Amino acid sequence: MSRTLEVTSRDLDQHIVETSRILLDATDDRRRQARLEAETVGDAIVTGLVGVDCEDIERIVGGRAKVISFLPLQGSLVAWLSYRENWKILAGRGRNREFRSASLSVYFGLVNEAYKPQVFRAEWAGWAKWNAQAAASFQTDAGHPHWQFDALDSLGEDSSVLRRKTLEVLRDPEDEEPVREFNPSPETVRDLVLAQGLSRVHFPSAAAWWRPAPNNGHAFAPGSTMELRSWLSHTLRYLKAELATLRNRRRA
Asked: For 144-203, what is each residue's pLDDT tens digit?
């Protein structure tokens, strides 16, 4: 049976310091000036990267975030990381912090350029009371932790923005009739695939489906901040090894 992960304010502060160290140790330059910083928003504590070596990006789910260089890829392309945790401040004496979620997102882009499409993310939502009336549970029936793949949505949205800007450039301000966007019919497979919103699909990263019930689940909650940091550390190590295959790939 899963249980909620609660920590004291002091323990959360220490966890943030140690998580910052894990993130920096995983980057291509450990001397970078960046760290995780906590911000209190109502009854929530949200952590995110800050520092002079971070760059700003637009998140696919809305809002802005800071990223740090993770690994050089082919040519001048670089893989970038953002990391975010969400904790709830509990009411009552002690006011412990309850874990809600952690999200590690990967972007591809160039140094000092704002355009960095979000490619995929690893997320872990905890076992928690998501509203005042409900008992503790996972927020959805998806896998926990899980992967979500954002490249199609990111590039699809970006292409529509570029298309709209192109039309604005082509439009003659003296024309009364607006330029209409060419829309091929029937729809192409590419259009249909881009319209699916595949970033909403959760791919479990800890599914023991080969085991007999009841040990064949795909939803697990972190039991401690140490487990959370271990998940982050191993995920970063795995990503570095896999992304390195892109950098070392030889063109045919």
From this structure: 999 999 888 787 755 545 444 434 443 444 545 554 555 555 668 777 776 777 778 888
Q: Is the whole-model pTM more than 0.85?
A: no
Q: How far apart are CA 70 and CA 28, in angstroms?
A: 6
Q: Residue 163: helix, strand or coil by DSSP?
A: helix
Structural tokens at position 212: 């007999």
How far is residue 208 from each of residues 87, 187, 218, 220, 237, measured CA to CA in Å?
27, 39, 6, 11, 21
pLDDT of residue 248: 75
Rounded to a whole number, what is the distance in angstroms from the first to the last CA of the chain?
51
Query: CA–CA separation, 124 vs 145, rounded Å?
Result: 4
- What whole-number distance in Å separates Cα of residue 47 and Cα of residue 12? 11
How far, rounded to the nearest angstrom, does the alpha carbon of residue 224 sit from its chain's CA centroid? 21
Cα(14)–Cα(145) distance, rounded to whole angstroms? 23
Structure tokens at 135: 């008992």
Structure tokens belonging to residue 243: 């992304």
Question: In terms of Cα–Cα distance, which of 76, 81, 26, 34 is closest to 53?
Answer: 34
Backbone angles phi, psi at 101, to 5 degrees: -165, 160
- 120 has which bridge partners? 106, 149
In sequence order, the β-bridge partners of residue 128 are 137
Q: What does each C-alpha distance from 219 to 11, 90, 142, 207 come to in angstroms?
A: 25, 24, 7, 7
Tokens of 233: 């550390």
